[in-house]
Specification:
Strand content: 5-15%
Radius of gyration: 26 Å
Number of strands: 4
Largest sheet: 4 strands, mixed
Distance between the termini: 24 Å
Number of helices: 4
Strand order of the largest sheet: 1-4-3-2
Order of helices and strands: EEHEHHHE
Length: 213
């Protein structure tokens, strides 16, 4: 029996096999069901699988549940809870990006100010001190120190923001995916990996795996 969101043709499917739905969620989280966090192992499994798929492919989550169907609203509530969680994760990444760019702008102002002061001090020092070893060492030290102060903002704007943007886009995709439940008898052989109750999906291991907590 299948319940939940329809999965359009051409969708790349992430598959899980669970004995109970509570395995999917962090039950130490006291939040209401629709606002509850996913279990860390389950989140890692889903996100790692998403990383392996084409970045523009539509996604869906298919959960094989080894029990009889529960309440009629169970599939809809599950889908909303999963999408809500990844929507919150996307919002967190968006906030972290804004904070990083704000920190980068502040660092740029501080770094540029220090660089200008360092260069000005270096020029003044060369006029005041007699040319020689000590003056040259101090001059070069000030200039190097000024450029070192610019490293952090350059690091933020050139490198640090890319991974956060990738994570945000990945969570946005996961927050929009349909979630479908498929109720199956315990021990049913569904696929080469799903037939192993304690198998875990690893990169390159195929299109199917399980999370057991």
């Amino acid at each position: 029996m299948t319940a939940g969101d329809p999965i359009p043709a051409g969708t790349r499917i992430i598959e899980l096999r669970l004995s109970q739905l509570r395995q999917l969620f962090n039950w130490m989280d006291p939040s209401p069901f629709l606002d509850r966090d996913l279990d860390p192992k389950a989140e890692e499994f889903i996100v790692d699988w998403c990383r392996e798929l084409p970045h523009d492919a539509p996604l869906a989550l298919l959960i094989y549940l080894e029990r009889a169907p529960g309440m009629p609203e169970e599939p809809e509530a599950l889908g909303r809870a999963v999408r809500n969680y990844f929507g919150r994760r996307s919002a967190v990444m968006r906030q972290r990006l804004r904070q990083m760019f704000r920190r980068g702008r502040q660092s740029s102002v501080i770094g540029l100010a220090f660089l200008v002061v360092a260069v000005a001090a270096s020029q003044l020092m060369m006029k005041v001190l007699q040319p020689g070893g000590v003056a040259e060492v101090l001059n070069q030290s000030l200039i190097i120190g000024g450029w070192v102060a610019m490293w952090r903002p350059l690091e933020i704007f050139l490198y640090d923001w890319w991974p956060l943007r990738s994570d945000r886009r990945r969570f946005e995709r996961l927050a929009a995916m349909p979630v479908q439940l498929r109720y199956v008898p315990a021990g049913n052989a569904l696929s080469p990996l799903l037939d192993w109750p304690f198998a875990e999906h690893t990169p390159g291991s195929g299109a199917t795996g399980t999370v057991v907590t």
